Description:
Helices cover 26% and strands 31% of the residues. By secondary structure, the chain is α+β, with helices and mostly antiparallel strands. A hairpin with a 2-residue loop joins strand 10 and strand 11 (181-195). The radius of gyration is 21 Å and the shape is elongated. The two termini are 23 Å apart.
Amino acid sequence: MDQVNILIVGGGVIGCAIAAEVSQRWPDVFVVEQLPRVGMATSTRNSGVIHSGIYYSANSLKARHCVEGNRLMFAFCEKHHVAHRRTGKLVVAADAGEQAALEALHKRGLGNGVTGLRLIGPSEISAREPHITGVAALEVPSTGIVSAEELVRTYARLATDQGANLVTRGRVISLKPAGGAIRVGVRVGDVPEIVGGENASSEETIEARCVINAAGLYADEVAELIGNRSWKIYPVRGEYCEVRGPRSALVNGLVYPLPHADGLSLGMHFTRTIWDTLLIGPTARYVKEKDDYERDRLSVVDFVAGARKLLPEIGEGDLRLAYSGLRPKLVPPDEHGMADFVIERDPNVPPMIHLVGIDSPGLTAAPSIARHVAKLAGEILD
């Protein structure tokens, strides 16, 4: 039986960032990712925005890790030549009825330690975004964009360069406490079936002194393997449209509406990407399955109705459907509010660390979360 110091379940941006952090300190680090490549799910099916920290409740993990993650992310991308850009953004109040919410957002951001925030009026909105209509906006200069795919690959490369082992097409199928360690059953390869007369997968057991559950959409199921049924993840699908043709020049940077009052999402926004394309989205809708990216997709008409609130010039002929992504929400469909990140050691199995409900701003928060988890790992391994 192989024995390792740390086994990380999940090779998304969080798992790879943790691997890059902990492999600086400990040898024998393994990352097990069920998909063929790292970062193929939630980590790269998003807007690629480096958030500032204005949306989250004071003293929450989301606020703390977003603000710190913003600083660390820009420094990391500059150091490792990951494609990114500090763009700033506008959060726009479409009418007078939204001004109070905009002012509250400004106050919350200041309380969270976000610097450079400024409320502006219609003339300054027009100077920056001539085609956007609104009565007021919050200018957020610390926001940016990043190539999420390149970011995940860079974290993975750093981890492997430092001696970490990355196993793709690997699924954790069992977790059993074993004294001061955890025995991890791992299935590697395709689902069990006969291919060319041989089984397409193999199973092995690894004994890990520390297991880190960074399984994203499946983190609740991984927790259940160790006997912890504290959480249930509800997948929420976000869909995008791309603006094509000359209309793609109507927006210069990042433009957001006020976030949904129920906490479901930050609202359908305009994102000028690192590749200079213009996206509208994401929408937000609960779905039943954790791999349901395409069933019953929204139409272009649905996007136009939402987009015209801030950009009246947009039309159906300017849009084409783009990709979609899934967020691991902890709030069920019949409730409201924004749940905080869960980052904690298992109360009954001390060598186990859980990260659950890591939705937005998980991409931004990744380097800060990685440092947090490294400290928890130190409590186990040192």
